[in-house]
Amino acid sequence: MKLLGKYWGYAVAFVVVYGWFSGSLGPNILIVLSVVAFLYSLFQAPVWCCAETRNQEFCRNNAKGVLMGCWIREHRWQKLKWFVRRSAWGQLSRRLLSGFNGIAASFSAVGTLVSAAAAVITLIVKTV
Ligand SMILES: [Zn+2]
């Protein structure tokens, strides 16, 4: 149960994928579930912090979500600054993608964002 408490967002993402392929979930439900799983990836999923430490290495403390840093406050600021600066994205994604949790969280963030957008488009197409 503790494992589920930490990784519940991936279960939601899995339901989203299932919903798309089976066609059993309506676009409104898919939007809600996609957004929930997306926010989970950004703020809850267990990943490495990945901020840069003083000796030019990257921080491997546990962090919650792709967007957040570890308990060190400077790291959180550093990551936020990176997200605003497009040129730093390559570096950040390389670091994130070097660990399994980072890969899972990054893919789930991108996937659920695409899914949410697709569900919104589906909804618009249906209602027009
Ligand atoms: Zn850190």
UniProtKB/TrEMBL annotation:
Q: What is this protein called?
A: Uncharacterized protein
What domain of life?
A: Bacteria
* Keyword flag Membrane: yes
Question: Transmembrane stretches, by residue range?
Answer: 7-23, 29-51, 103-125
- Kindly state which keywords UniProt assigns to this record, in alphabetical order: Membrane, Transmembrane, Transmembrane helix
